Structure formats: structure tokens, C-alpha cells
Amino acid sequence: MKVIQAVHPEDFKAYQTAQIRERFLLDGIVEPGKINLVYTHYDRMIVGGASPLGTELDLGNYPNLRAEYFLERREIGIINVGGDGTVTADGTAYNVNKLDCLYIGKGTKEVKFASKSADAPAVFFILSAPAHMTYPTALMTNEEAVKVHAGATETANKRTINKYIFLEGIRSCQLVMGLTILEPGSVWNTMPAHVHDRRMEAYFYFDLDKSQKLVHYMGEGNETRHIMMNNHEAVVSPPWSIHSGSATANYKFIWGMAGENQDYTDMDPIAIPDLR
Ligand SMILES: O=C[C@H](O)[C@@H](O)CC(=O)C(=O)O
Ligand SMILES: [Zn+2]
Known about the structure:
The chain is mainly β. It has helices at residues 9-12, 17-24; strands at 2-4, 25-26, 35-40, 46-50, 57-58, 74-80, 85-89, 92-95, 101-104, 111-115, 124-130, 138-140, 146-150, 159-165, 176-182, 188-189, 194-195, 199-206, 214-220, 223-229, 234-237, 244-247, 252-259, 268-269. The chain contains two helices and 24 strands. The strands form five sheets. The chain has a seven-stranded mixed β-sheet, with no helix packed on it. A seven-stranded antiparallel β-sheet has the order 2-21-18-23-15-14-13. Catalyzes the isomerization of 5-dehydro-4-deoxy-D-glucuronate to 3-deoxy-D-glycero-2,5-hexodiulosonate. Zn(2+) binds at residues 194, 196, 201, 243. It is an enzyme of class 5 (isomerase).
């Protein structure tokens, strides 16, 4: 499992394109027939993808964890962004179709991922954080997710925020997870931008056409940089960094957090004119 170390904001100011990409961009996590996971030292969040084809994929165990099994001291959130699929947790199979979310609590020994059809494979995006107790495994469909309408067509940021794992939804120790859908013609997410010193965040962009590009903005609000991103790529956001994007067409993205609190509204917004 690849490991990403944490970066100091003062050091970040000197980073060139290649360094920014190496330290924050998680590309290649979606690979047909494979599970790819990255261990980040941002709140020890593991970020990855499971893309089963004809055969089931096992979550497995990794030496980095020094655990008997993956979820011995962890919890996991999974959202499917591809074709119909199933996730099996200790023998119980859950239908996790596109935009559905499954939370699996600490103590589950075996997790398996499968696609209903290899011709329309499921693509599972995975977030896993350390957990101190067991919350029940729970499935939430996209219809059941709590929806918040944000932005406007005039500012090209009209979008719907879908919340799944959060204080009023699926309960967890640390994980907060959901996804945001932009309307056609709207291309800006998380603008006005914000930081939340108490939590890290990861973004995973999807349903962005292959011919298009996403520009992800990061850094302190007065010292911003960008990363050019493609469909099915993820990026980690340190607690000191904004995390916002604009693209050449509309798209969707999964966001997820772990850290000091689970209060979604604990954000310090940065006024648009103040960005540098
Ligand atoms: O801390 C919260 C996250 O940055 C996202 O939920 C923001 C987002 O989905 C959006 O504005 O579109
Ligand atoms: Zn945020």
C-alpha cells in the first residue's frame, strides 16, 4: 500500500508541479480488476478504489496496518460510481448500485467487492479511518441521502450536496462522507472556498467526460496552487488547505473527512475577493 506523508504549509509554498502531484494527487486508484489503496498520514485516512470485473475482489490485509484484519481497528465507507455491484461484509451481501453508500463498522473480518456484470463494472470508491468502537453496518441509497441545494446558475456553481455518513445519517466514529452533483453548465465546487483545521478531506472526481479537465485548487487561502485532474482521480486536502474545483464541463465528486469532529458546518469560509 502506497503511503502519503503530511506536508507543512510553509514547505508547500516552494513546491513545483511534480511535487504537488506526488504529495497530494491519488491517481491510478481505479484500475480494472484491482483494489488500490493509499495510506495517508492525514488523520490516517486510507483512500482507494475497488474495480471488480468478472471475479470478486477481497479487501485484504496490509503490513502497514499491523492488524489481524483490515477492519480490526478501522471503519470503512464505500460509494459506487460505476455499474451495479455488491459488497459482502462477513457473508452478508449488500446491493451497492451507482451513488449508493455502504458503511461497514469496526470488527468486520471479511469484505468483498463484486460487479453484477463485467460489461458494466462497478467502481467502488473507498475511505477508511481509525475507529474506537463498532457502529452498525448500514446501506444508504442515493434516494435516502440528505440533499442540500447550493449555488446558482449565475455563478456556475449550482449543485446538490448528498450526505450519507454524518451525524444525522449513517453514524460512524470519524468518517463523514457524501457526494456532490453539479448541474449542466455549473462547473465550480466549494466556492466560496473554506478550510477546516479540525479535519482533513479527500475529493474523488467522477462522471467527468474523458475529453474534459478539472482544475483542483489547494493551498492556504492567500497562497493557492492548483492540480490538473482527470476523471476517477482523488486528491487529499490537508487541514490548512482550501479544496475547490472548476472544470471544463460539469461532473460529480465524492468528499470525505476524518479528524477532530464530525460537524459538517465547522468550516472557516474564505471570501472570494480574499483568495490569492
Ligand atoms: O467540507 C465539506 C466539503 O468540502 C464538501 O462537502 C463541499 C461540497 O461538496 C461543495 O461545496 O460542493
Ligand atoms: Zn471541506
